[in-house]
Request: fold
Amino acid sequence: MAARELTMVEFKIEVVVVPVSDVDRAKDFYTRIGFREDVDFSGPGGFRVVHLTPPGSAASLIIGSGVTDAAPGSERGVHLIVDDVVAARAELAAAGVEVSEVFHDAGGVFHHAGTAERVTGPHPARQSYGSFASFADPDGNTFVLQEVTTRRPGRISHAVYRSADELESALRDAALAHGTYEGELGHPDPDWPAWYAAHMAHAAGLGS
Reply:
């Protein structure tokens, strides 16, 4: 009997509920570091939902009252992905946030819990996924900045360009690479749309 091909409905992480003790204080903190306030809803009995989205993120945070029974400050290690951890750390510090120095793990792969095996400074080769900085919100919920500059193939299923400028940059990169390819080919490439698509998909970290 032939093996049945497994198909999966997409499961996308959309929201992380972060437990806080003072909703207004937490909301002020997150908006101060650039999170967008999407919703602030109040209901009967003190129920309140505040939906906040980090810059450039497809996933969001929810804080509020009556939204979780977790203890305030108990969330650990929510990772915020950035393309320049040094610049991101500087922005947080400028906003008055107590943030760790940039660090990498002694083993060079992800990072240990807490401060174990931390080595000050970015990864020596500035390896994608290998440089971090950490901070906490006023309740002690902890976050980690992680620098990702190149996605592993197959890591994402679609590419999202956050602005026209970002799309233009990707197209210019593809055009430059395609010019080199046509030079090696020795004649114009009649199938250039397929070449562009493959090049841009690979650059974005899409699988084949």
